[in-house]
Design goal:
Rossmann fold, 6 domains, alpha/beta
Length: 740
């Protein structure tokens, strides 16, 4: 056995690898990402190295000039405490091994290059002489030196004066240096960080209720005994999971360790951040995609300079360079955003488990709608399990839910997107000056352009998906951003009966404004909050009750707490129910339950009107009653019956090429390779991807199912080696996505 390693000599040359023999006694222990000791250089100096790849074939043992040489052996596994760089490189090895891709790609995820940004420095003039001495200097200074006099007079009243540039003082740098030499003033420079949110002077902890305290006490008891496990907190919407997180983080920070809190970007609101800032003050760093380069640089600088105890951010925040992480919290752990959309397509929850192991840290997952895999692991005691069954605010209860059958609405002659029951309740809330949220899981004027006469659908020429009509009068592709003018007649048959099926947020806003002209209406989706500050601005407007109705997509149902919202309308609950995905029911349950949870989060009773074409579906019924266990039991049986994850492990291989013939040939040969190497695995495909053409790439999918995850990892390794070594695959790209 051989290992390709990177020697710990210069991190700027991480792409330089060396090959060593793995001694027999280490073959069962060594793995990718591990830190080992190797003899290096002519003097065989013992050096740390990181295992990048394990090889079973003997590499070519000749130099460029034809001379042969003998490989050296790895001398042992590094036993001392690992530095943060070691842990991050080990984590990169874990990502490569379990999720595919190159080691270079994995390293870029865990150790991204930071662009150098100009630091902000502020200068401070301190009064060194006593006030009487300064007054005496003023009395003996000529009136011609008016700027010097102005500065000295300020120092009589102010002990410290701050300024950004020396020119701001109106006094030359030479004169200031003279005043310093004479002992009149002292000048200090201080690095200032660009603020990413309002600071808070309060450092408070809200008291926990009995349910919350039971969870916290058990966590602390185990943590203080040295137990480092993974826990799942299943808490209904409004049960106060965030307060429990804050208490847990406070305890770990009090022990001198660091905390990472992951929150989906869509839920990383000002309101959420402020709750942590009130407790931890300035020792919190915030990371998200809305920060500019200077703000990101400053936040990372604070982390490097050990001025931070807690980091809050989306999945990328997991890889901050903390030396001693004691706790990782993943809120809304069911969210799809925790799965990377680019290679390597890693699952943040699995990577966090490994990172927690490397740091001897605890991992806490939390959700009102846990993922099926996490809940199953908790029920099987692989995870510790906690439950918050009640809302945290005294008097607050889950909302009452009414299910409206849209088929019956249509049969009775109501062609409106708003049902009669929802209309009645909207008018009732407006008369009571209470707030309303209307949720629809679509974007823009959501509907394809089709001909009612011949059925032709206008598609993007680059992506093989239907185009959408926006208010600018143009057709847009939401995948590659291609735009074109709206047509007046069908390009296929010439008919004038061509148009859209409108069921998006823009269309809903138009209907609402027409039906309720007295209402103040806000719309929140990707089109209305594309610029920095717009997202928080709209939320703040609604929070201040400067609007009556908030219309939106998933942005409005994540992490928000509006005490005056007493009605939530879910416009088409089953819109995501019948997509071509075995987890569609799980996704739909999560969306509907989360949306319903926005109503009645104070003592005011909340109501939800759930409009659907599938009122009897178990997913809709369970979500309406906020009964996760009922949903889980039915979905569990369905997945088990068909052998879907988590009862099997699945590897999706995406094969892409701009050459359609090459794609067909290579995907078929890869599928045959899987069949030939199968050890009980089920191979499905190749078949065209749901979106067959995207950004000019044709795409095929191959699926491999196995009861054993490591078997799929072995399949992935076979594919990677074949694609890398065989020139027949030079025109295709291959990506992997694991589900377990």
């Amino acid at each position: 056995m051989f290992a390709s390693v990177i020697v710990d000599s210069n991190y700027s040359k991480l792409d330089k690898t060396f090959t060593y023999i793995v001694p027999t006694e280490l073959e069962e222990l060594i793995r990718v990402g591990m830190t080992v000791l190797v003899p290096f250089g002519k003097g065989n100096r013992p050096m740390k190295a990181y295992v990048m790849e394990i090889m079973y074939d003997i590499p070519e043992s000749t130099l460029d000039d034809g001379m042969s040489f003998a490989y050296k052996e790895i001398t042992g596994i590094y036993k001392d405490k690992l530095k943060i760089e070691d842990k991050l490189i080990a984590l990169a090895g874990f990502i490569k091994h379990n999720f595919g891709g190159t080691m270079a790609a994995a390293l870029k995820i865990v150790m991204p290059v930071r662009d150098k940004v100009r630091e902000v420095t502020r200068h401070y003039i301190y009064r060194s002489a006593d006030v009487s001495a300064i007054k005496n200097i003023i009395a003996n200074t000529s009136a011609a030196h008016k700027n010097v006099l102005a500065l000295l007079k300020r120092l009589v009243d102010e002990e410290v004066i701050s300024f950004t540039n020396y020119a701001d003082t109106g006094v030359s740098k030479t004169t200031l240096e003279k005043l310093v030499k004479e002992g009149i003033i002292r000048i200090d420079d201080k690095r200032e960080y660009r603020e990413v949110c309002d600071s808070s002077d309060e450092e408070t902890l809200v008291s926990l209720n009995a349910e919350q305290k039971a969870v916290y006490d058990d966590f602390v008891s185990k943590y203080d005994m040295g137990v480092r496990d993974t826990s799942l907190i299943y808490g209904i919407t409004g049960s106060g999971k965030t307060e429990v997180y804050i208490y847990m983080a406070s305890h770990v920070v009090s022990l001198g360790r660091k905390v990472i809190i992951l929150i989906p970007e869509i839920a990383l609101t000002k309101q959420t951040v402020e709750r942590f800032r009130r407790r931890f003050g300035e020792r919190v760093a915030i990371l998200n995609s809305k920060l500019n380069q200077g703000e990101k640089y400053d936040q990372m600088s604070k982390i490097h300079d050990d001025e931070v105890d807690v980091v809050i951010g989306p999945r990328s925040a997991l890889f901050v360079p903390f030396a001693d992480v004691g706790l990782i919290i993943i809120d809304e752990e069911h969210e799809s955003s925790y799965r990377s959309e680019q290679a390597p397509r890693y699952d943040t929850r699995e990577v966090a488990r490994e990172f927690a192991r490397l740091h001897d840290a605890s991992l806490v997952l939390g959700s009102a709608t846990p993922s099926l895999i996490s809940y199953k692991r908790a029920m099987e005691h692989e995870y510790a399990y906690y439950e918050l069954k009640n809302r945290a605010i005294e008097g607050a209860t889950l909302p009452d839910v009414s299910i409206v059958d849209l088929r019956a609405e249509l049969s009775s002659g109501n062609l409106n997107i708003i049902s009669r029951e929802l209309d009645f309740k909207i008018r009732d809330r407006l008369s009571k000056h209470e707030q309303i949220m209307l949720f629809i899981n679509r974007r823009g004027v959501a509907g394809f352009i089709s001909c009612r006469q011949c059925g032709f659908v206008i598609k993007c020429p680059h992506c093989d998906v239907s185009m959408r009509l926006h208010n600018d009068g143009k057709l847009h592709c939401h995948y590659c951003m291609h735009t074109t003018e709206m047509v007046k007649t069908c390009p296929e048959c010439g008919s004038k009966y061509i148009g859209t099926f409108k069921a998006g947020t823009q269309r809903l806003e138009e209907v609402v404004r027409k039906m309720y002209p007295e209402a103040r209406v806000l719309r929140m989706d990707s089109d209305t909050v594309s610029k920095k500050g717009e997202y928080e601005g709209l939320l703040e407007t609604f929070r201040k009750k400067e609007a009556d109705i908030l219309i939106g997509t998933q942005m409005i149902i994540k992490g928000h707490d509006f005490p005056d919202v007493t009605l939530v309308g879910i416009m088409a609950a089953d819109m995501s129910l019948y997509v071509d995905d075995y987890s569609a029911a799980e996704t739909t349950y999560q969306i509907v339950a989360q949306a319903s949870g926005r109503a009645g989060r104070s003592a005011k009773k909340g109501e939800v009107v759930l409009q659907t074409y599938s009122p009897d579906h178990y997913c809709i019924q369970a979500a309406a009653h906020q009964d996760y266990r009922a949903f889980y039991d039915t979905e569990y049986a369905f997945r088990k019956n068909f052998g879907y994850p988590p009862f099997s492990n699945m590897l999706a291989i995406r094969v892409m090429s701009k050459d359609e013939e090459e794609l067909v040939k290579c995907s078929k040969s890869l599928a045959l390779l899987f069949v030939m190497n199968a050890d009980g695995e089920e191979v499905l495909g190749p078949q065209q991807a749901n979106i067959y053409k995207l950004n000019d790439y044709y795409r095929h999918m191959i699926y491999v199912k196995s009861p054993y995850y490591e078997n799929l990892v072995a399949v992935k390794d076979i594919v990677e080696n074949e694609v890398t070594d065989n020139p027949d695959y030079r025109k295709v790209l291959v990506g992997f996505e694991f589900t377990r």
